[in-house]
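hey
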């Protein structure tokens, strides 16, 4: 009788220990996701997108005049949409409103970098 009780108590202890370990792993995973989102959304992704947009403008002589309208629109949508889409993916578990907010932060930061840093400070763009 005592053996059954001891085995039951030991099994419950193992289950509780596994549950605590799963909880610790889930908390670490959530901290990593949160840090990645906070690093990428306002800093890394807008900087990368702005660098790509400014590189394209610089390569084309400051404007996209030689491009067809659909090609220019597609380039702008891709250059600004991809970083925002990556941010949406990173924030997907935070709810729709918060994910859209993070995407807006990424998009607005990228626009600011393109215009203020690239076009004004560095003098890139049309003459």
């Amino acid at each position: 009788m005592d053996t059954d009780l001891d085995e039951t108590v030991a099994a419950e202890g193992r289950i509780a220990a596994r549950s605590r370990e799963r909880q610790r792993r889930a908390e670490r995973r959530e901290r990593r996701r949160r840090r990645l989102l906070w690093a990428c959304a306002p800093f890394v992704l807008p900087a990368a997108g702005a660098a790509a947009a400014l590189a394209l403008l610089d390569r084309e002589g400051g404007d996209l005049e030689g491009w067809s309208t659909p090609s220019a629109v597609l380039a702008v949508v891709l250059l600004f949409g991809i970083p925002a889409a990556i941010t949406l993916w990173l924030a997907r578990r935070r709810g729709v409103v918060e994910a859209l907010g993070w995407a807006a932060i990424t998009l607005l930061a990228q626009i600011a970098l393109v215009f203020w840093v690239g076009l004004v400070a560095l003098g890139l763009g049309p003459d």
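The chain has a mean pLDDT of 91. Residues 32-121 form one domain.
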